[in-house]
Design goal:
This protein is mostly helical. The protein is about 80% helix and about 0% strand. The protein has one domain. The radius of gyration is 23 Å and the shape is globular.
């Protein structure tokens, strides 16, 4: 008996040492990484091999802790904090390395959206007589409120808050995965894998509607999932409606995807005679359809209210109908990606990972019948299929999506939840290691794809 107790004590001590060592590796690497970027910002030449070694140390340390100590209730919070830091780094990095006094991070529509915020600040008729971008005032109003409360200039708020919004939006991947799978390890791994996702970062780190709209999108889904529990609570219903309203006022495309998600899952519930997935999250098709109806009415109602601007967007989109996406790529995507080599690597790796993740999803559908959460996987896969159809359609012709990669932003959080669940449930040690390496490769190639990340060679 004493020998068993001694072995247990030694094991506990060893685990504590491993936790401490892995945490030290992470925080030291993170500190050196910030110092590296500060030196780079000040024009001091650096060895980029060191940069990528630090990136590898950060991700491998976090993944090791998830796999090894993810069941420890206390250490879960430490890991979550580390993943938040990772997500924030990729959102804030461009603000660190450029001169924000003369340039806008991300460029694009940021100056025009900022000018619309100035108009809203001085006019009350912005919905009826303001500039077109003022028709979606959610981001601008939030920026104005923060500026007034903190007494920080409106431009500084517009530059430095979007990375925070991007970080907050990504963290809902963690909360939704934890709600669906009741496994913090799945939630942590999915959040870690999504934190450097290329398309999410390039759209959410700068002053753009989608940086805030994605928060409403993910928060709305989370609250809706909680609302499906029995018995439903009025607070969740009210929160869900508030998020839908906030989203409708912030961005039209993200509003469309929230409505599409809820309708897709509601249809899935109805098509399943034995709604195990609904019961696994504690809900019913009726409650799901009610929320889908409310979200649709609010979204379409606001589109009708601002009618002229929404008709202009649809008309503009229809002028590109039938234009092959291949003609659109070089003028838009290559410009975003920067160097041609980096662009080629990203396209090749993106297609490869799409096929690999697709194989994992297919495995979940056809062969993994003994898994308790399989119905939840199928529910999410139904959404992935809808997004895949939209993506294919947008590649054939530019329609209301502007560019197809925006669809991936709303798809990959749920793909990574399923993949993370699969990885952590695999019993065979070699298969688990190979799948873990697959996810590590995914985060590293996404980090490399970012045009403002230093070259590795």
């Amino acid at each position: 008996m004493s020998r068993v107790l001694l072995i247990s004590m030694l094991s506990t001590i060893n685990d504590n040492h491993r936790k401490l060592l892995s945490a030290i590796v992470f925080f030291l690497s993170y500190a050196f990484l910030l110092h590296f970027m500060d030196l780079l910002r000040n024009g001091i030449s650096q060895n980029f091999i060191l940069f990528w070694l630090l990136i590898v140390f950060i991700f491998t340390s976090a993944m090791y802790q998830i796999f090894r100590f993810g069941r420890d209730n206390t250490w879960q919070k430490v890991i979550l904090f580390q993943v938040i830091l990772i997500a924030f780094f990729f959102q804030i990095i461009l603000v660190i390395i450029i001169d924000t006094s003369t340039r806008w991070p991300g460029g694009g529509d940021a100056p025009a959206i900022f000018n619309s915020a100035l108009y809203i600040l001085s006019h009350t008729d912005f919905l009826s007589a303001g500039p077109d971008l003022a028709k979606w005032p959610g981001l601008q109003l939030q920026t104005i409120v923060i500026s007034e409360i903190t007494n920080i200039s409106l431009r500084d708020v517009a530059i430095f808050t979007p990375p925070i919004y991007g970080t907050l939006g990504a963290i809902f991947t963690y909360f939704i995965a934890r709600e669906l799978y009741s496994d913090v390890r799945v939630a942590l791994l999915a959040y870690l894998a999504y934190s450097p996702f290329y398309y999410m970062v390039i759209m959410h780190h700068w002053f753009h509607f989608e940086s805030m709209a994605f928060i409403f999108f993910m928060a709305g889904i989370l609250v809706w999932l909680k609302r499906l529990r029995k018995p439903p609570t009025a607070s969740y219903s009210l929160l869900a409606i508030l998020f839908v309203v906030g989203l409708a006022l912030t961005h039209y495309l993200t509003s469309f995807f929230l409505v599409a998600f809820v309708i897709t899952v509601s249809i899935y519930f109805l098509m399943r005679r034995r709604i195990k997935s609904a019961r696994s999250i504690g809900g019913s098709p009726a409650a799901s359809l009610n929320f889908a109806l409310i979200a649709t009415v609010i979204t379409l109602g606001y589109w009708v209210y601002i009618g002229q601007q929404m008709l202009y967007i649809l008309a503009s989109a229809m002028t590109n109908l039938g234009m092959p996406f291949s003609q659109f790529q070089q003028s838009y995507i290559v410009e975003l990606a920067g160097q041609q080599l980096r662009y080629d690597i990203r396209i090749w790796a993106s297609r490869s990972y799409t096929l690999l993740f697709g194989a994992i999803l297919l495995y979940e559908v056809l062969w993994r019948r003994d898994c308790r959460e399989r119905e939840t996987d199928l529910m999410l896969i139904s959404w992935v299929v809808v997004c895949a159809l939209l993506y294919v359609g947008s590649n054939i012709a530019i329609i209301t999506m502007n560019v197809p990669f925006r669809i991936l932003i709303f798809t990959y959080p749920f793909i990574l939840m399923i993949v993370s669940h699969t990885v952590l449930k695999v019993k065979h040690r070699l298969k688990k290691v190979l799948l873990a390496i697959l996810i590590l490769g995914f985060v590293l190639f996404n980090a490399y794809s970012l045009q403002f990340i230093p070259e590795a060679f």
